């Protein structure tokens, strides 16, 4: 056995660069596409794209899509789909408005009630999918109609607003600057710097840990390059935002959620089980995994995140409208598939979905600045989705 | 007798791999020609070259069929001149009727309108030829695998076959169905149809084959003429594995201890038809260090019994008791059955055993994630260590434990499934057809693992349709028929004849 292992190592060590790239092409390819698209629009818009105010808007505009994409990724990895998220987000936004504006409920209990309501909605849909084996496509299609209708009923066809100031802060607030910096928000800059440092340290520790066990396969130069690029990007974006109004509150919430879901999918038993469930439900069940319950909870989770997204969207518009959330589900699902999730389940990464959402977001934003009409924007976005998935399928069949 | 088919110097490469190298194959008209070789030796690739799945130009060498060189662009080309291949995985549409399946792509139609009367008449003719007594209207999903195989053959007959290629036709058939199928081949032979039979089952081959070609590592290593002399199975195995295999089963000195798992008064009703009893009040005891075999025909209820004990993963209205070390245990869910020391290794590793898209490491730990995590967080390095130790212990051949299981050979996949269950640290392992579809060399390794487990004091219950395997491995053999145990033999006294007789007799009593 030992000589076989040695034989394995020999060629690996030699072709490590190409081998590593080949194995991780998908992950880095995504990242590179995002960079390429950003650079393209940066040039085409004469630098408007990366202006601090636009960058901040970009984050605000896409936060709710990204937050829902986190839940959708789990749903898709589990082998399902949720078409109702847009309607649910709209409904929760309406619920929040009715409570806070019409009944003067304080924003903290109102927010909690809304999140719980989202969870219950997810549970109601997950119940049919998990325990009665009704295809998720149908259940959530029904949910989409139901909650679209309920939003209309709840708001009586009217827009309801404005929200209390404190609640608006969820979307339009920025983290306060303790140093009172006028041109540069030092707190925000500091947070970005700390984050960049934390990332590098975490990567270093991970690598040394891997090295200790002889399983690291990433070429050294690659590792350095990767860290420089990422840390640089964080510092740069942090700097840009600090020169405007600092880091938006939403960004902080979103970032925490991204970290949390990355951790859940990569490192926890629950995450592992979701992948197994989507990869082969029968094998997962025969391995002792309670597949029904797991499916149920992925939908509960999706419901809560849809509710959160609904709150953020409502706070951003500062009003709840019957049309809120319309078509969100399509952007969210597209983000997951552009990000490399498989429609057959079992495959997909949180970072992929986030990048997918940013690709969509940057394109939306860039094309709007360029004055491309909403008509052709949609055409282009559709083609990008198709192309991304085609590249995936092509890569797999090769 | 002249040759119907000659394949000369066939070489086929895939990126990075030479799948076939200078393979020669000559099939005489009207003979049954067996092709044997370990998994991955290149048998299926060769047949795909022959049938046009890999078109002319994607390989080098030539195919001479009925005296002419042929260059097939696709399967339709080869089918047109009477070369029909029946793949291991049946290509039938489950929710269509037998008649519809028989003429799929070859409909009995004029101007696109199907003549159902003609189709039915022809179906009945064809079904009579293959000895299948079913209505043409019956949906394929409602008949057993054995009968489905016959439908496939009838489909080949509908296309006026001259050279029939069967890839592992009996892999999922029981003995009776297999025999019927082999008899059918002999009958075809009498009518002048040549066949190529790919099989792992050497006893079947020696029964029907006129010539045996052995392929190893992509090359033909031997051609044996069975009519000139009797060919022993050992002779064939030697050629297949390229080494002497003195014993097909590793030696073991049984050290049998106290009873460990007892199942009492076990009754199971059918998963869908609740009124049908599948397992009828049976008792079973297995001891520490014992390898207990369960023989029986397909459909006897062996898998259903095993799965119902394993966390009620099959059936409903289950009653009876399960005792581990003399104490009653709860097996009402799979999780509880596993916690109580029972593991079940499925007969269908691809559909029920593995998450094929995931790597070896993740499959190995799937049934016992708790063993590599704390507080719900997986310890990557610990997991890696576990996977590597199993890779070493069970000699899983792979580039690393990060390799996707879909890319492993059958034998190595089976070792991954075994690893998964060994890591769950069971006291009793139920192995359902543990060597199905894997080659001779890997079988020997699986047997060795089974013996090691028994030596560690675990109990192994082995369900198998291959009687030589049960005879060679088990300390005791129970024979199941229609949901009851009809006979019990010690390993020493059991013979193939005795087991068959027990099944047949039980069948007569029931009738």
UniProtKB/TrEMBL annotation, chain A:
Its main location: membrane. InterPro entries: ABC_transp_permease. The keyword Cell membrane applies. It is a multi-pass membrane protein. GO terms for molecular function: transmembrane transporter activity. Keywords: Cell inner membrane, Cell membrane, Membrane, Sugar transport, Transmembrane, Transmembrane helix, Transport. One of its GO terms (cellular component) is plasma membrane. Part of the binding-protein-dependent transport system for D-xylose. Probably responsible for the translocation of the substrate across the membrane. The chain crosses the membrane at residues 25-43, 55-76, 83-101, 107-130, 137-157, 186-204, 220-240, 246-264, 294-314, 326-347, 354-373. It is found in: Cell membrane. It comes from Methylobrevis albus. This is Xylose transport system permease protein XylH. Pfam families: BPD_transp_2 (PF02653).
From TrEMBL, chain B:
Keywords: ATP-binding, Cell membrane, Membrane, Nucleotide-binding, Repeat, Sugar transport, Translocase, Transport. Residues 5-242, 261-507 form the ABC transporter domain. It is found in: Cell membrane. Coiled coil: none annotated. GO terms for molecular function: ATP binding; ATP hydrolysis activity. InterPro entries: AAA+_ATPase, ABC_carbohydrate_import_ATPase, ABC_transporter-like_ATP-bd, ABC_transporter-like_CS, L-arabinose_ABC_transporter, P-loop_NTPase. GO terms for cellular component: plasma membrane. This is ATP-binding cassette domain-containing protein.
């Amino acid at each position: 056995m030992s000589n076989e292992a040695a034989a394995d190592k020999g060629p690996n060590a030699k072709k490590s660069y190409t081998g590593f790239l080949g194995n991780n092409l998908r992950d880095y390819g995504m990242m590179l596409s995002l960079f390429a698209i950003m650079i393209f629009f940066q040039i085409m818009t004469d630098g408007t794209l990366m202006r601090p105010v636009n960058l901040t808007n970009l984050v605000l505009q896409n936060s709710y899509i990204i937050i829902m994409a986190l839940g959708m990724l789990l749903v898709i990895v589990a082998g399902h789909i949720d078409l109702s998220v847009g309607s649910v987000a709209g409904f929760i936004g309406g619920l929040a408005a009715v409570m806070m504006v019409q009944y003067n409920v304080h924003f903290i209990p109102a927010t909690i009630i809304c999140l719980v309501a989202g969870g219950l909605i997810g549970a109601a849909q997950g119940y049919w999918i998990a325990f009665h084996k009704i295809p998720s496509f149908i259940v959530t299609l029904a949910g989409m109609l139901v909650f679209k209708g309920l939003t209309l009923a709840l708001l009586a066809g009217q827009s309801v607003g404005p929200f209390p100031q404190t609640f608006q802060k969820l979307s339009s607030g920025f983290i306060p600057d303790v140093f009172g910096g006028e041109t540069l928000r030092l707190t925000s800059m500091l947070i970005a710097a700390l984050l960049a440092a934390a990332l590098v340290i975490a990567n270093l520790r991970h690598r040394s840990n891997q090295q200790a066990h002889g399983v690291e396969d990433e070429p050294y130069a690659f590792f350095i390059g990767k860290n420089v690029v990422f840390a640089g990007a964080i510092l740069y974006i942090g700097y840009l935002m600090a020169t405007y109004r600092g880091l938006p509150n939403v960004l902080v919430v979103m970032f925490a959620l991204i970290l949390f879901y990355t951790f859940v999918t990569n490192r926890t038993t629950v995450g592992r089980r979701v992948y197994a469930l989507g990869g082969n439900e029968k094998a997962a069940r025969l391995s002792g995994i309670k597949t029904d319950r797991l499916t149920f909870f992925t939908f509960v989770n999706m419901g809560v995140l849809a509710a959160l997204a609904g709150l953020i969207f409502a706070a951003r518009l500062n009003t709840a409208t019957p049309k809120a959330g319309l078509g969100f589900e399509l952007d969210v699902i597209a983000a997951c598939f552009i990000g490399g999730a498989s429609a057959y389940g079992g495959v997909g990464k949180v970072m992929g979905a986030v990048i997918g959402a940013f690709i969509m977001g940057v394109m939306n934003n860039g094309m709007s600045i360029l004055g491309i009409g909403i008509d052709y924007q949609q055409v282009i976005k559709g083609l990008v989705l198709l192309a991304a998935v085609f590249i995936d399928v092509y890569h797999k069949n090769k | 007798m002249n040759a119907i088919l000659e394949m000369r110097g066939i070489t086929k490469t895939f990126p990075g791999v030479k799948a076939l190298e200078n393979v020669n194959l000559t099939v005489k008209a009207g003979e049954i020609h067996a092709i044997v070789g370990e998994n991955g030796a290149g048998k299926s690739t060769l047949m795909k070259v022959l049938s046009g799945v890999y078109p002319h130009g994607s390989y080098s060498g030539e195919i001479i069929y009925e005296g002419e060189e042929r260059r097939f662009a696709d399967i339709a080309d080869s089918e047109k001149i009477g070369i029909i291949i029946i793949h291991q995985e049946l290509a039938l549409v489950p929710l269509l009727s037998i008649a519809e399946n028989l003429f799929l792509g070859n409909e009995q139609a004029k101007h696109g309108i199907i003549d159902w009367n003609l189709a039915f008449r022809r179906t009945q003719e064809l079904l009579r030829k293959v000895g299948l007594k079913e209505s043409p209207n019956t949906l394929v999903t409602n008949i057993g695998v054995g009968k489905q195989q016959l439908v496939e053959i009838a489909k080949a007959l509908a296309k006026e076959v001259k050279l029939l290629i069967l890839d592992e036709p009996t892999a999922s058939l029981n003995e009776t169905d297999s025999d019927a199928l082999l008899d059918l081949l002999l009958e075809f032979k009498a009518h002048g149809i040549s066949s190529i039979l790919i099989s792992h089952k050497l006893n079947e081959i020696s029964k029907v084959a006129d010539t045996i070609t052995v392929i190893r590592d992509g090359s033909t290593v031997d051609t044996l003429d069975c009519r000139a002399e009797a060919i022993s199975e050992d002779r064939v195995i030697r050629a297949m594995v390229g080494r002497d295999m003195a014993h097909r089963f590793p030696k073991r000195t049984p050290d049998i201890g106290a009873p460990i798992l007892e199942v009492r008064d076990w009754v199971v009703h059918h998963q869908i038809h609740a009124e049908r009893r599948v397992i009828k009040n049976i008792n079973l005891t297995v001891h520490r260090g014992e390898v207990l075999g369960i023989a029986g025909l397909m459909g006897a209820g062996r898998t259903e019994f095993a799965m119902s004990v394993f966390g009620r993963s099959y059936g409903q209205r289950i009653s009876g008791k399960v005792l581990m070390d003399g104490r009653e245990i709860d097996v009402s869910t799979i999780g509880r059955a596993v916690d109580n020391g029972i593991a079940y290794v499925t007969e269908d590793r691809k559909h029920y055993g593995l998450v094929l898209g995931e790597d070896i490491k993740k499959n190995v730990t799937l049934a016992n994630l708790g063993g590599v995590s704390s507080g719900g967080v997986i310890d990557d390095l610990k997991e890696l260590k576990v996977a590597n130790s199993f890779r070493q212990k069970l000699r899983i051949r792979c580039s690393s434990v990060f390799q996707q299981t879909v890319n492993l050979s059958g034998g190595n996949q089976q070792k991954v499934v075994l690893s998964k269950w060994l890591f769950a640290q069971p006291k009793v392992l139920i192995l359902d057809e543990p060597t199905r579809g894997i080659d001779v060399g890997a079988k020997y390794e699986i047997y060795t693992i089974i013996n090691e487990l028994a030596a560690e004091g675990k109990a192994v219950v082995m369900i198998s349709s291959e009687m030589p395997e049960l005879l060679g491995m088990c300390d005791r053999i129970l024979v199941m028929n229609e949901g009851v145990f009809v006979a019990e033999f010690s390993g020493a006294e059991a013979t193939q004849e005795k087991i068959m007789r027990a099944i047949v007799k039980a069948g007569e009593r029931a009738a």
